[in-house]
Design a protein that fits this description.
The structure holds two protein chains of two kinds.
Chain A: H1 13-53, H2 58-63, H3 65-71, H4 84-99, H5 103-111, H6 117-142, H7 149-156, H8 164-178, H9 192-197, H10 199-214, H11 229-239, H12 250-259, H13 266-273, H14 281-288, H15 296-301, E1 304-307, E2 310-313, H16 320-352, H17 355-370, H18 373-384, H19 389-397, H20 412-435, H21 440-448, H22 453-481, H23 485-490, H24 498-507, H25 512-536
Antiparallel strand pairs in A: 1-2
Helix pairs in contact in A: 1-25, 3-4, 4-6, 5-6, 6-11, 6-13, 8-10, 10-11, 16-17, 16-20, 16-22, 17-20, 20-22, 21-22, 22-25, 24-25
Chain B: H1 9-39, H2 51-54, H3 64-71, H4 73-104, H5 112-124, H6 127-147, H7 153-182, H8 186-194, H9 199-227, H10 231-236, H11 244-253, H12 259-291
Classes of the chains: A mainly alpha, B mainly alpha.
């Protein structure tokens, strides 16, 4: 039996080799690691955050936490309107949101789903103070001490035991509402006894204290709370049993309870603010879109909508985005087709000329390839304008009358011409590299066997050049469907792509969820195409210059 | 590929008309770039040839648009920003990219396909999608750097744009450098090690000089990517980081000023220089590869 082979240092050769291999692998990974981490953080994570944002829907739950909770039990088919409790929860949620100036943001978000909610939220936000005053003014008239923040602070601030759970809950509520940190020091903690006795008032006062301390940097001990604490207190006092309470302000609380001060009927108050609150529409919208994750943006991206009764499609004439997707694909195909038509002869000529001449002509292809995209786009803007170079030449030749100048810009024609020009090198270069490998002797053999020029080309040469056409076409198509700059400048309204819509939603309409959903769909399309490209051509065969 | 003397009339007609067609396509490719240059010397604020220009009257030409470019503070700010952002982004992508390309070219790399796909992805994903993703992520990153690290707002703006541009340039560096390394003779590093050179010395004295053409052309690609990039900078940057393409884009979309044509001409000249450099480097590297054994 042969002994195990040993390396120079006496270890078995197998183990020694394995160790060397492992060290080599490790060294390679160490070299790759910095870049890999860099790309993951600066690129892959942002793309992931976009995908996440297309389904993320925390805003409704963050802005109206108690309303969403109360609405969960409402059945729109059985009851015409949600319960009084829901309206009451809505009032307190909205009040805090309006103070934080976040209710309009939610209105805008819900307006994507149901038109009209934006103005409903904005207008109602202004009138919330009136509803609070129904309780606040009588309370203040009854005993002026309630107008003073110190009375409230003395009542609410912790003496023996603080209600830490309530405090943490309200910190989280304000943090979710404002998207800001609420971890800084707050000179207040809700008293556990009062919180048990007056749950609603303690909750709203704590939310206020957290808000003023963490967002405005003020001391709650010296400030007057928002008016909303008055209705909260009066609601609590309707049922609270004060007999065992001996803490601060006990007498004042008993006096208020005995006085039986008015509390708004929140259903009536909301309907008074805007009669839309008396319909099911806003409530159903909030209920449907209250989940943390939503398919709503993706449905919007294909002109559909998530409603209480499932998915509803936009009427045919309002399907803007589907039209835009179809147009993007259709125009990209047209651009790809014109690139094949213009690129094939050039690639053939370059592949069949002597090297020296071909290299010279190749410069004419590479120069546009290397020229700044914006330079080429501005050149086309200059050429295609009504007072531009092409129209001038046509008028000068006499082909067009001076008052009948052609409109070649701000429409589909402008986009197709300039993008064909911009993407043509991406078609020519792969075609050229494939055609260079086709042996001219095949063509000569075909001819010597009696084929005409056309048959020789079509049956022998063309099939061999198809991989080049395929590679160029997929490349051009992928680049075309994601184009933004050129359509934006020469496309007007009729010649724009889906990417322009994405940019519009990012910078103008601020519907970021929809922008992310549109981007995710486009990304999926591009990745599928690249997968096909990899199968057909191989990513490794991408060559530059 | 000349015309044989026995060619028929039909063949002759086809031969010459094919030449004419190709000529027209070449004209289509090059005309927009050629037209821009003389128009940038227009003495008027028009985007078309004036009668004076067509008569080659010197009065029809002037350098006033170039003067505007070099004196207008907006354009100068854009120029300055471009010259800050593009080189730094290029240095980041070239240094990290070259290291990784050397790692990737070793024989036993686990998960090579996946790693390659991740590193190439910034080139594959359409710019508008990269920009959308970066818009969301970089704004929170910027807020974090400003509030937690207490950095200056302008500085953070530059950092964001530079990071975004660096990652966009990386695929180009990876592709060109790995392509150069394919032809690299591994016995050279072994020989160097044999003669007592450490890994660092081997890298800088033996490997680097040989792959330098690939590194430089990858760097030029990365540079031009950043220098020419507008979508991401529009989404990630703010007005104080506006670059030349940004200023051109705004100019083209809102009120178009002839200064754009002067800038365009300058950029064309720059790209001609870059093209020449890359071409020379490619030839040199092919020549070197032809000489090396194997």
């Amino acid at each position: 039996m042969a002994e195990a082979m040993l390396a120079a240092d006496g270890t078995p050769l197998k183990r020694s080799l394995a160790r060397a291999l492992r060290r080599q692998k490790l060294r390679a990974l160490m070299l790759i690691a910095p870049l890999l981490i860099f790309v993951l953080i600066t690129f892959i994570v942002p793309i992931g955050s976009m995908l996440f944002r297309s389904v993320e829907n925390e805003m409704v739950g963050n802005t109206l936490p108690y309303t969403v909770e109360a609405l969960a039990e409402w059945d729109a088919d059985a009851e015409p309107l949600p319960s009084e409790d829901t309206f009451q929860a809505m009032f307190f949620d909205m009040f805090l949101a309006a103070e934080a100036k976040r209710h309009t943001r939610l209105g805008t978000r819900l307006n994507y789903e149901t038109t009209g909610l934006s103005s409903l939220f904005r207008q109602s936000g202004r009138q919330l103070d009136d509803v609070a005053d129904i309780s606040y003014e009588p309370l203040e008239d009854f005993d002026a001490a309630w107008d003073d923040g110190e009375t409230w602070y003395a009542l609410m601030n912790a003496r023996q035991t603080a209600d830490d759970a309530l405090m943490a809950q309200q910190r989280a509520r304000v943090a979710a509402l404002t998207d800001n940190e609420t971890n800084s020091e707050v000179n207040f903690a809700p008293d556990a006894e009062v919180a048990a006795l007056l749950p609603l008032a303690a909750r709203e006062y704590t939310a206020w204290a957290v808000y003023v301390a963490t967002q405005d940097g003020r001391d709650p001990a010296t400030r007057d709370p928002w008016e909303a604490v008055a209705p909260a207190l009066l609601i609590d006092l309707q049922t609270a049993d004060l007999s065992g309470y001996a803490g601060p302000e006990a007498d004042r609380l008993r006096a208020v309870q005995a006085a039986n001060l008015p509390v708004a009927n929140f259903v009536d108050a909301f309907v008074d603010m805007d009669e839309d609150w008396g319909t099911q529409v806003p409530w159903e919208t909030i209920q449907t879109h209250s989940s943390t994750y939503t398919s709503g943006y993706f449905l919007n991206a294909v002109d559909a909508q998530k409603t209480a009764d499932g998915v509803s499609w936009q009427p045919e004439d309002k399907q803007i985005l589907i039209t835009l997707f179809v147009r993007t694909i259709w125009m990209s195909l047209l651009i790809m087709g014109s690139c094949i038509l213009l690129g094939y002869p050039i690639a053939w000529l370059l592949a069949n000329l002597p090297m020296r001449k071909a290299n010279l002509l190749l410069i004419l292809v590479l120069l546009p390839f290397w020229t700044s995209l914006l330079v080429r786009t501005s050149a086309w803007k200059v050429m295609l304008q009504q007072q531009g170079v092409i129209n001038d030449v046509l008028v000068w030749i006499g082909l067009v009358a001076d008052d009948g100048r052609l409109i070649m810009i701000n429409n589909q024609f402008g986009t197709i011409v300039s993008m064909t020009h911009i993407l043509l090198p991406f078609m020519i270069l792969p075609m050229y590299s494939v055609m260079q490998t086709i042996q001219p002797s095949y063509l000569r053999a075909a001819k010597s066997l009696g084929a005409t020029n056309w048959t020789a080309f079509w049956r022998v040469y063309f099939p061999q050049s198809v991989p080049g056409i395929g590679a160029g076409s997929i490349l051009v198509f992928i680049l075309a469907i994601g184009y933004y700059i050129t359509p934006e400048i020469v496309g007007g309204t009729k010649g724009v792509f889906i990417s322009n819509r994405i940019a519009y939603h990012i910078s103008s309409s601020l519907n970021w969820g929809l922008a992310a959903a549109l981007g995710s769909i486009l990304l999926a399309a591009v990745l599928i195409l690249y997968w096909a490209y990899d199968k057909i051509v191989g990513i490794d065969n991408v060559k530059l210059g | 590929m000349g015309l044989p003397p026995y060619a028929t009339l039909g063949q002759r007609i086809w031969y010459y008309s094919f030449r004419v067609i190709c000529g027209l396509i070449f004209f289509f490719l090059i005309a927009p770039i050629i037209v821009v240059m003389p128009l940038s010397f227009n003495a008027q604020d028009f985007f078309t040839f004036t009668p004076e220009m067509l008569r080659l009257d010197p009065a029809g030409y002037s350098l006033k648009h170039y003067e505007d470019f070099f004196t207008n503070p907006q354009w100068q700010l854009a120029m300055k920003n471009s010259l800050i952002i593009a080189p730094i982004a290029t240095i980041i992508s070239v240094s990290l990219g070259t290291l990784a390309a050397i790692g990737l070219s070793q024989s036993h790399v686990p998960l090579k396909g996946t790693i390659m796909a991740i590193l190439i992805s910034p080139m594959i994903v359409p710019l508008i999608i990269s920009a959308t993703g970066m818009f969301f992520f970089y704004s929170s990153l910027g807020n974090w750097m400003e509030s937690t690290l207490g950095l200056d707002k302008g500085f953070v703006g530059y950092v964001k744009v530079i990071l975004a541009h660096a990652v966009l340039g990386i695929p180009f560096v990876i592709i060109t450098v790995t392509a150069t390394l394919v032809g690299f003779d591994r016995s050279l590093t072994r020989a160097a090690a044999n003669m007592g050179a450490g890994p660092v010395t081997t890298f800088f004295r033996v490997q680097m000089p040989l792959i330098l053409p690939g590194v430089i052309s990858g760097g030029l690609f990365a540079f031009i990517t950043s220098f020419d990039e507008v979508v991401v900078v529009l989404f990630v940057g703010s007005a104080s980081q506006k670059t030349l393409p940004w200023q051109m884009f705004i100019g083209l979309r809102e009120q178009i000023s002839p200064t754009i044509l002067a800038v365009a001409t300058i950029l064309v000249v720059i790209s001609i220089c870059l093209l020449t450099t890359v071409e020379l480097l490619r030839r040199r590297s092919e020549r070197l590869r032809g000489m090396s054994p194997g």
